[in-house]
Specification:
This protein is an alpha/beta fold. Helix content is 37%, strand content 24%.
């Protein structure tokens, strides 16, 4: 079985390390981490993920700008993007996260079950 490719873009190295380990543990995902928003589009073009998990608040280029750059690039514009943020409550995570401007948002503190459900619902 071919693993589903997910690009995780977040400037928090400890968070991306933990998230990568948790998601790869079930054996169905190949997680590639990018800790720089400014390199996210180039990394997406190279890795060709089936889903991008994208932090909202990053220092150099924030998630909204990265999402706009992805949508402007014909080679990666159709890859689904789910924003990950500390600003989504546990109650919102339990109901599948929030949707704003056509994008799904899920909390960084979502349970593993909630995160996996969100991924399955949004992966191409």
């Amino acid at each position: 079985m071919e693993k589903k490719r997910i690009l995780l873009v977040d400037d928090d190295i400890a968070f991306t390390r933990m998230m990568k380990l948790n998601l790869e543990r079930n054996g169905t995902f190949d997680i590639h981490v990018e800790n720089s928003g400014s390199r996210a589009v180039a990394t997406a073009k190279e890795f060709k993920p089936q889903l991008i998990l994208l932090d909202v608040i990053m220092p150099e280029v924030d998630g909204g700008d990265v999402a706009a750059m992805l949508k402007d690039d014909p080679t990666v514009k159709d890859i689904p993007v789910v924003f990950i943020t500390a600003l989504v409550s546990g109650e919102e995570n339990a109901s599948g996260g929030l949707i704003r401007s056509g994008y799904r948002f899920i909390g960084k503190l979502a349970s593993e079950k909630e995160m996996l459900q969100c991924i399955e619902e949004n992966i191409r």
